[in-house]
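Data availability (excerpt). The following record was deposited with the supplementary files.
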Amino acid sequence: MLVGLAGIPWAYILSFPFKSAPSAYSILIISTIVTGVAGPLATFFLREFYSPDMKTNLAMISDILRYILSWMGPFYPFGRSFLGWVSIQEKNNRCLNQFNLDQLEPTCKLFKEDPVIYFLNQFNQDNNNTAACCDTYVGVSEDYAICGSILHAGVGDLTKDFYIHPCVEPESFWTFDYLYGINIDVIILFVDIIVFWTILTLIETNVLSRGWTKLMERIYGNEVETPKNIDDDVLEEQKSVYDNKDNMMRVVNLKKKFKKFSAVRGLTFGVRKNECFGLLGVNGAGKTTTFRMVTGDEIMTSGSCFIGDVSLSNDRAEYLQSIGYCPQFDSIIEVLTGREMLTLFARIRGLRSVDNLIDREIEKLAEFVDLTQYLDRPCGQYSGGNKRKLNVALALIGRPKVMLLDEPTTGVDPAARRKIWETINNIRKYGTSIILTSHSMEECEALCDRLAIMVRGSFQCLGGPQHIKSKFGKGFQIIIKLKSNESKTVEMLNDLKGKVISKFESCVVTDEHLDYIHFHVPDPSTSWHSLFSVMETVKGEVDWIQDYSVNETTLEQIFLGFAREDKTHQESI
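Predicted structure:
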């Protein structure tokens, strides 16, 4: 019971440093074998074989190992106390285990009647050990219970006294003996129970996280680098986040610093009722850190989050009840069916099974995300699209006011992606606000009412997809495809670039890779006729142009432009 009470929190605590379940299981099993089996055996036999005549003090080595391993989990004191208990029980039951009662009493009778034969020869010691079991507690009659007594017998003309081995006295393992006592180990198990449950409580209540954050702030400071150039739309959002009554969720001046690195630099935005808000950015821009802070998984350096008037810092439980979260990777147990997964999360969410409430809710969710026919099939047999649908359904349990979707269509085929988009649009119609992260610009244009592009932890732009394209994507994009089988020198490429740039005002090369050259014509008043006329002329002059395309600047190109600026900034540091 004690090892169970200590082992449960210990296994839970060990799971936190690991990102994958197999790694955690492996370390837990290895540590259990080392501390629970190898450790107790090593310390026990070091003490068992110790002799004062030895040059190496095995007893001291045993004690050092014992007190180190005792605080490395509950399995060492359990294994050590188990060895002590088994050893004492073996000693106490020696007579019962080694001798049959029907044979023992006649043997004791022979010892008493003729001790000279049995105790005056080379077998004296063996017989004396046997005589120690001649006691009433093992069932020998009182007449022949000779252990611990003195027998008198004549040897020739003399009378000799034979001292019989003392009776086997039952020993207790409830002692502080280094080798056989278990008191120390039991005390350590009690201490482990208190310590491990305390540590687990501190972890679950984020007390340790907050303490570690405060310590890092003392060492590295809590000043987060603020962005130098802030877009007008971002500034306007900061000013209106409190005034806009339609905001279901408000994130105010959110900052996060990891040691010397400023990961999130003062994000402020609101998510309106029934709105899908897109959060875009390259890897490392701070999207995941922002999600973790908004969901309460990460301690923020400063800032606040509200759903309605409920604050994450002041009313954490009520705040989290209003959030549904669909992670980037499938959070499902593959051996459970879809129905069992939904039931499990419904009970975690606090739904009651009175009047079949949970069953009715599951049926509604399954119908809503189009999973009804797969409900009783193990989750591991689902297709990629159905797994993502199930994750969305899990996030919808409890009717949250705000849903956070972290790349909900990752690894999904185009047909399934469209169905998930339909589901997300239906969620909005039922009154839930959505925060979405994605690397698919097509997905953002299809789903998001507004979106923001993050670079180095701050917003570079914010607004509707069309507004961002109009503001940051003025002009046109020209992409020239060169013939791959033609040899091209640097002079030839520069000549081609010069021909195109000279035809349009402020035209620049934005990208160049393999056989593609990208040009940006920033003047939005340039006519389509002029663009195609010039490109046809250039193509006629340069015979190693395979083809070209002219189009308005897309959201993806704007995103790539911010990404290139970020890369340039990183390389300049």
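Summary of structural features: Residues 566 and 572 are 10 Å apart (CA to CA).
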